[in-house]
Amino acid sequence: MRLKDKVILITGSGSGIGKSTALLFASEGAKVIVNDLSGVGLETVSEIEAAGGEAIFIQSDVTDASSVAAMVDQIIQTYGRIDVLFNNAGISGVGVLHEIEPEAWDKVINVNIRGVFLPSKYVLPHMIEQRKGSIINMSSCIAEIGLARRASYAATKGAVLALTKSMQVDYAPYNIRVNALLPGTIMTPFVEKYLKNSYDDPAAAIESLKKRQLSEELGLPEDVALAALFLASDDSKFVMGSPLYVDGGAVFG
Ligand code: NAD
User: Fold this and answer.
1) Is 8 helix (H, G, I), strand (E, B) or coil?
2) Which residue from 51, 69, 47, 48 is spatially nearest to 60, judged by alpha carbons?
3) Which residue ranges traverse the bilayer (predicted)?
4) ipTM of the complex
5) Which residues line ligand 1 (CB under 6 A)?
6) Is residue 140 part of a domain?
7) pLDDT in tens, 211-223
8) CA 68 to ligand 1 centroid distance, Å
């Protein structure tokens, strides 16, 4: 078991990639803290427990400082440590820049960047004290390639990649690794909603997405979960500040 007894917080793990990762990490022996905005995370915990794993659910909004601080306090009171933080929670933002309403812009920036800042801010003091930790930040291959009508979302994922590198330099002296995941198109509720809201013919949109990558298949949440497992475990002990592409070659598409 590659994560035996590691205490791992995964934000936004009531759905999609976060949920898949929570299930995989628990099957590898981790004690998983499932976080989400609403009770949707309880289902993830039930599935983990049904498979014989260990998990608790903490409802918290990753953009709310006092809520995140309370979540981290609860984890420390329960387990005494946090070994891995996966900053996964995120929302989509669609539209060309001049058509984006300022409030919609702020919301995407808030969830996707502040939502990485706050859990990191409150978890890091514990990792510093432990002199060990792994933080995984959810970026996207959109940080490196232009995609139509995704201005606000691309801005946030580029920021997360830059933040990852900066964090890595600052926290390397404490034996804390900080890496980023850069998925391509992964079929989750997040993407299904985007396709449904943005295209008259979502099936045709899926075919055109496939043409923009090297793989003939779109990614699955499990593909990203396996990459997260590598970054969470000590198998990646020499991997620091890296962007890990899980995109079927979309950056070459
Ligand atoms: P998803 O919508 O299935 O899951 C995201 C979860 O985050 C949801 O359960 C949601 O409730 C939760 N969440 C949203 N705002 C939150 C908040 N303020 N506090 C706590 N939880 C919150 O999405 P997904 O596709 O699994 O995406 C997960 C992450 O992966 C996101 O950061 C997304 O940007 C990134 N990503 C996804 C893809 C893709 O193609 N699906 C590609 C690249 C990157």
Assistant:
1) strand
2) 69
3) none
4) 0.99
5) 11-12, 14-18, 35-37, 40, 61-63, 88-91, 111, 115, 138, 140, 183, 185-186, 188-191
6) yes
7) 999 999 999 999 9
8) 17
Sheet harboring 84-87: ordered strands across? 54-59, 31-36, 7-10, 84-87, 133-138, 176-183, 243-246
The per-residue pLDDT for range 21-68, each reduced to its tens digit, is 999 999 999 999 999 999 999 999 999 999 999 999 999 999 999 999
- Residue 29 tokens read as 């022996």
138 HSE (CA, 13 A, CB side):
30
Alpha helices in the chain (DSSP H): 16-27, 41-50, 65-79, 102-109, 115-130, 151-171, 189-198, 202-211, 221-232
Dist CA 190 CA 226 (whole Å): 19
Number of domains in the chain: 1
**How remote is the CA of residue 12 from the centroid of ligand 1, in Å?**
6
Site to probe by mutation for ligand 1, drawn from 10, 190, 195, 218 as the one with most ligand atoms within 8 Å of Cβ, is: 190
Q: Which domain, by its residues, includes 95?
A: 7-189+218-245
Distance CA 170, CA 223 (A): 30
Its pTM stands at 0.98
- Token readout for 199 is 């295209």
Query: Do the beta carbons of residue 124 and residue 175 sit within 8 Å?
Result: no
**The residue to which tokens 């390639």 are assigned:** 145
